[in-house]
Each structure stands twice: as C-alpha cells, then as structure tokens.
Amino acid sequence: MEAWLWVLKGPVFRFALAVAVLGLARELFIGVYGAALAYRRANDKDLPWDQMWRRVFGWTLPAARMSREFMADAGREFKSQRERGAGKLGFLGPLAGEYMEKGKDTFKGHGKIHTALSFFLHLGVVIVPLLLLDHLLLWEKSIGVRPPALPQTLANFLTIVTIVMAVSLVVKRIASRTARTLSTFQDYALLFMIMVIFLSGYSASRPWNPVSWEGTMIIHVLAGDLLLLLTPFTKLSHIVLYPVLKFSGELGWKFPSRAGEEVALTVSNKEVRPI
Predict the structure, then answer these.
(1) Which letter does DSSP use for residue 34 in this model?
(2) How far lies 92's CA from each of 97, 168, 229, in Å?
(3) How far apart are CA 152 and CA 74, in angstroms?
(4) Which among 57, 181, 271, 273 would be 20 to 30 A from 66, CA to CA?
C-alpha cells in the first residue's frame, strides 16, 4: 500500500496538478480575451467600473449581499406597515407574520439557502486543500512552495462544515422539485466526491475509523487527484476563476460582439454600423 500511496502522492498528483493549472489558465485566457475583444470593438468605452467591481465582489462574497437584501426587504416592509397608519406597536404583529411568509419565498424560492450552503462549501473546498499542513508538505515536495498552515482546530472545523454543506446540498437537490429537475449527474457526482475526500481525510487518523490508515489515505488521495484532474472540465473551475470570469462577463455583457447588428437585423432587417 505504501507504494500505491507514493505513486498517488507523487507522479499522479503532479500530473493532475499540471492538467488543472493548464486547463484553468486556458479558461481564464478565453474569458479575459473575449471581454477585451468586446471592449476594443466598442465605440463607447465609458463604463460604470465601480458598479461592475461591486457586483463582482457582491457575488463572490454573497453573505454580505444576502444580508443587505434581507435588511432592505425588512426596511421596506416596516415602512409600508407604518405608512398604512398602524399604531406604534400594532404594526409589529402583521410585520412579523407577513415577513415570515416573504422570508419563505425569499430564501427558498430564490435560492438564498442554496447560495449560503454553496458559499461555505466553496470556502472549505478552497481553503482546506491549500492550507492544511499535510497538504502543504505535499505541495512543497511537488512544487517547492509552502505557505503558512491553518491551525489544526480551524482545519478540522472547516472540514466538518464542508461535509455538512455537501450533504445539505445533496438533500436540498433531492427534496426540491425545481432543483431536482435542474440537477445533473455531474452535480451529484462532484458533491459525492467532495464528501469522500473530506470524510476520508478527517477520519484517516481517528481511532473509530474501521479502515486502516493506509487504505483510507489511498481513497483520500485517489479521490483528491481525480477531483483535481476534473477541475478544468467541470463546474469546479468557477471556484477558482469566478471573480475574474464574473468581471469579464460584466464587461462582455456591455459590449457583446456584433450585438447591435444582430438586434437590428432581427427587429428591422436592416444593417447597421458595427459598435
């Protein structure tokens, strides 16, 4: 088993890492090049840069955005109830009841719970593999780089949070008819692989683990290498590239290539000057 572990931690890991880096670099280049091309072709280059950056980081850190939306909804409801002429204390009852009903629609109908679960899952998937001490030793052996490690207590906490979030997302996809319709095999497979990786890594050295340390680590490293290898070709790529590609999308949306010509041809069947 030690020979298998050496192969998985050495040549297989380096190969998977090379594929992941090159694949992500390709995706990054395509996104940035497309946005830059649209910007270069546009006549009007006056863009709301501050607003675009705020939108990018608002989606990258959704907890702050969700909090603002929740408070904004509560503020509007509070003002509406007060303007209806309710007494000083009388509006609190209707406000609570109506806002609880709105809350169900806000957080279930519009995927706010899904956003929160996904955010914490992404947090664990990015931070733990990069900054866990055992992983850093592997990084150092493969590429000669070793950043500061996470405290073990924090790493254990994030590992448990990631497992819980992955299980919760699977349950939510199965329980929700809409989510079940939209979910694909890839969605379930990636969540299952994340659960296997984090659960095997967490349980490897635990006394209650029924599998040997070597056997658990083979499962852990093999699943980790496979997930790393698949990263550029699946939805996992957005975990790494999301802020950059989101900004490129914001920019490209303002100036889609030949958008003016396509719209004019569709609406009035007339050619127009390219923008």
Answers:
(1) H
(2) 9, 33, 54
(3) 39
(4) 181
* In contact, 275 and 255? CB cutoff 8 Å: yes
Residues 137 and 67: their CA atoms lie apart, in Å, by 38
Cα–Cα distance between 241 and 232 in angstroms, integer?
10
Nearest to 159 by CA among 129, 116, 115: 129
Q: Tokens 């593999």 — which residue? A: 129
For residue 113 the two structure tokens come to: 């719970």
> What size, in residues, is the chain?
275
Burial of 268 (0-12, 13-18, 19+ CB in 10 A): exposed
Nearest alpha-carbon partner for 77 in 105, 97, 61: 97
Q: Pick the closest to residue 138 from 1, 10, 235 (CA basis).
A: 10
Residue with tokens 């100036």: 255
pTM (2 d.p.): 0.70
Q: Encode pLDDT of 62-103 as tens digits.
A: 555 555 554 455 455 545 555 554 444 444 444 444 444 444
Q: Is the Cβ–Cβ distance between 232 and 246 less than 8 Å? A: no
> If you write DSSP's letter for every residue of 124-148 in order, what string do you get?
HHHHHHHH-HHHHHHHHHHHS--PP
Cα–Cα distance measured from residue 252 to residue 36, given in angstroms and rounded to the nearest whole number: 8
The rounded distance, in Å, linking the Cα atoms of 131 and 51 is 32
CA count, 13 A, side-chain hemisphere, 161: 19
CA-CA distance, 139 to 144, in Å (whole number)? 7
Dump pLDDT digits (tens) for 164-198.
999 999 998 899 888 889 899 999 999 999 999 99
pLDDT 10s digits, 240-267: 787 777 777 667 666 655 555 565 666 6
